[in-house]
Amino acid sequence: MRLFRWLGARLHARRWWFWGIGGALTVYVLVVLFLMWWWDGEPQSFDVKAAAAQRAGGKSKLVTGYVTTATLAEVLERLLDKPGGWLRNDVAPPGVLMDNIPAFEYGALVQVRDLARALRNDFSRSQTQSTEDDDLAIADPQFHFDATSWIFPTTEGEYRKGIRALDRYLDRLADPAHSDAQFYARADNLRAWLAIVELRMGSLSQRLSASVGERRINTDLGGDPSARQSTATPGERIVRTPWMETDDVFYEARGAAWALLEFLRAVEVDFRPVLEDKNALVSLRQIITELESSLSPVHSPVILNGKPFGFFANHSLVMSSYLSRANAAIIDLRSLLSQG
Fold it and tell me: Do the domain assignments include residue 305?
């Protein structure tokens, strides 16, 4: 009898032990799911002039270039400070289990890097032989740091170093005593940056269109009979985005559209005289309108990948349509800016 009582006590104790482990795991899973839901939100659009004025702290007026540079810093700060922080370098749940927002972060980061490089090489220099700004020479490589580094050093820490360098440039830009810090709002500088944007938008549009698979004719050497390439490629091929990567490409495009939208709103402020002189303000606003439409809320719980004229929607093709129209407007804008 004692043996049975002892075995019964042991089984009873183990049962409570299993119940305890099961309860703890249940709570952990619920917490992870809640955090995934909470962190799965895109940054909201903001008033670029108000954000720049807040960054200035009322210490100075918004001189030429201040809004564009401040918006560059603000976009990256909002990515770092959103719920969950920077998720692309997470190595533990729930961040490591998420892919939509990390893809969004990367799309926006590419736009940040492109504008930072243009700011360093074009907007802050009067001509090709002029020296580059010391703080912008720090910020540019900082923003190109590995987006997935989680320790020694962290991605967040390196990006914040770049933001502090931008803030130092902004302080000197608004200070009449520091004439070495300049921002040149010229048509040629704006065209140079828009040329990079045009390439980015074209690439994203093609990747989005490939969600359903499409037949593409090789036009790599079209228009130049003497052109050559390194190795031969097929004259026709089928391009298709892997099914598991469709939502990643979609959210990367949304991240790029979000960042570019804020940058173009800032450009409208700093380059307004140039745009009005070239009669190009309407073209810029058309780009902004298309990007705003591309960021409409997604009401589906998943990114659908239906056929172009099938029963289910294809969110990638819709996104591609908006970006293609925005890209066409960018091409028109660059053409207007090139005119005398």
Answer: yes
